[in-house]
Amino acid sequence: MAQNTRGVQSVYRIEPDFVGAQLDSVFSDVRIDTTKIGMLAETDIVEAVAERLQRYQVQNVVLDTVMLAKSGDPLLSASAVETLRKKLLPQVALITPNLPEAAALLDAPHAQNEREMKEQGNALLAMGCGAVLMKGGHLDDEESPDWLFTRDGELRFTAPRVHTKNTHGTGARSLPRWRRCVHGTTAGRYGTRGQNMALGRAGKSRYSGSGSRYWPVHHFHAWW
Description:
Layout: E1 2-4, E2 7-10, H1 16-27, E3 35-37, H2 43-55, E4 61-63, H3 78-88, E5 94-95, H4 99-106, H5 114-125, E6 131-135, E7 146-150, E8 153-157, H6 180-191, H7 197-207
Parallel strand pairs: 3-4, 4-5
Antiparallel strand pairs: 1-2, 6-7, 7-8
Helix pairs in contact: 1-2, 2-3, 4-5, 6-7
C-alpha cells in the first residue's frame, strides 16, 4: 500500500495463492500461540485466510477489522465484507472494530452514543466471534470509551479524550491513549497469552510528529 499522512494513493493486490502459501509456510513449521489479522482487502484473500485458520485449527486469533483508512479511503472491498462476516468472524477470538467498521459489518447506521455502541457490540458478538472490543473514539464525548463484550458479560474502559491530529494508525478521530494498530497488535500481545481479555485491554492503555495531515501515534512519548 502506498500511503502517507494525506491518504492512500495506491493498493497493490497480492495474489490469494501467495497469501495462502505464506500461511502454509508458517503454520506448518512453527507453533503459533497468537495470530493477529490486519488488512485483507479482497474477498479471495479473506477466503484464503479463513480456510487456513480452519485447516490448521489456529487458536487465539485477533481480527483487526481494517476497512477504512483515516482519510476515508476504503481498505476492504464491499464484496469482501459478507465473506468476512460468514467465514472469518466465527473463527476468531476477538475483533476490534471502531464505530464506522462496526456499522459496516452490521450494515447499520454509525452508533451515535454508548447505548447504540453497546447494542452493536452485542450484535457483533452474536455473529460468532469470541469477543468484541468496540472502540468509541468516534463519539463526541469528553471521554473516549471502549466496551469489551464477551460471553460472560460486558466491561467499560475509558480515559480522557486527547484532541490531536496525530491519529494516523490509531483507528479514531480523537483518542484516549491507545487505538487501532496499537489496539489490534497489543491485543494479541497482552490479551491471549494466559491473561484474560480485560487484562489485555488494560495493558494496551498503558502502552499506548511527522507529515502534513494525520500524523502517526507517538509510541515513544515516555522518553522524548
